[in-house]
Amino acid sequence: MSALPPLHVAVAVLRNAERKILLSRRRKGSHLAGLWELPGGKLEAGESLSGALRREIKEELGIHILTHRPLIQISHSYPEKQVFLDVHLVNAWQGTAAGMEGQQIDWVAVEEIDEYHLPPADRPIVTATRLPSRYLITPPSIDDESIFLQQLETSLQQGIRLLQLRLPGYDKQRFASLADRVMALCHAYGAALMLKDESLARRFGCGLHLGSAQLKAMRSRSFPTRQLLAASCHTQQELAHAASIDVDFATLSPVQPTATHPQARPLGWDEFSALVRQATLPVYALGGMQTEHIQQAWRCGAQGIAAIRSLFSG
């Protein structure tokens, strides 16, 4: 492994009106030649991230970026060098993209990107493009299932597309019955459901969210890759282990003090940011999160926020 500091690389995820992502093919003679990648390049001395992003995209694709925002930060080690990818989502630009350096480009639907051979460092970025910025965790107890389902549907109508059904006080049979109804709602709104029970997650074909103990006990991924696998993390070691067993995304908590875990030491935004910078998978900020914290989470390199009260319409 190279002893040199990592190359700081600005990467653009260009998403068009059809929600397709632009991929560019690396030319012969370049590092990782022949592979498809997300466009971008390294920062020059004294250059800002935004400046590098605009310059690289203008040089490579002939378009001018109008607006962009942070999506994810990824550190990756190749045998010959280390890279730190500063990835931004670009939704607005001027001009028509073309391969200005003779490279092949293609607009690809997110669900079809797996058919393209990408560098290993780009894989977590693809996962990030598929995940929303809000992850709803349902309240730990409910009084009336009908009211709960109505409130959950309201949350889905308001744009929630990733949620975890978490009711630790329910027996398995009662929980499975409710999960079946929640799964039907998620299908109706195109949302992804996460459960913490592996047997039920396999049965419903939905995602599995590992608690800390489950994460520690898992030595390799045996859960189907077509279903999301997530993990609750609190330390750099847990984030690294989650990445090593191919977890798709993680929550990192608590960022701020919470009523549910008053004894837990909050990380604060600075420590949270430092931990996310070392991560190699999408990370949601959890603990004391409100919707107005989404942009702060993005600035820290996070996917977004995970929350109960501020995201559940109850």
CATH topology of the largest domain: TIM Barrel
Rounded to an integer in angstroms, the radius of gyration calculated over CA atoms is 20 Å
Kindly state the percentage of residues in helix.
25-40%
> Approximately what portion of the residues adopt beta-strand conformation?
25-35%
Instruction: Write down the domain tally.
Output: 2
Q: How many strand units?
A: 15
Low-confidence stretches: none
Reported for the largest beta sheet, the result is: 8 strands, parallel, barrel
Distance between the termini: 51 Å
H and E order: EEEEHEEEHEHEHEHEHEHEHEHE
Shape: globular
- Structural class of the secondary structure composition? alpha/beta
Q: Briefly, what CATH class of the largest domain? A: Alpha Beta
Count of separate DSSP helical elements: 9
Corresponding CATH architecture of the largest domain: Alpha-Beta Barrel
Overall mean pLDDT? 93
Strand order of the largest sheet: 8-9-10-11-12-13-14-15
Q: Determine the CATH superfamily of the largest domain.
A: Aldolase class I
Short description:
This protein has nine helices and 15 strands. The chain has 314 residues and is α/β, with parallel strands linked by helices.
Fold and architecture overview:
- This protein has 314 residues and is of the alpha/beta class.
- The protein has 2 domains: 124 residues, Alpha-Beta Complex (Nucleoside Triphosphate Pyrophosphohydrolase), CATH 3.90.79; 174 residues, TIM Barrel (Alpha-Beta Barrel), CATH 3.20.20.
- 29% of the residues lie in helices and 26% in strands.
- The chain contains 9 helices and 15 strands.
- The strands form 3 sheets. The chain has an 8-stranded parallel barrel. A 4-stranded mixed beta sheet has the order 4-1-6-5, sandwiched between helices.
- Helix 3 runs parallel beside helix 4.
- It is globular.
- The mean pLDDT is 93.
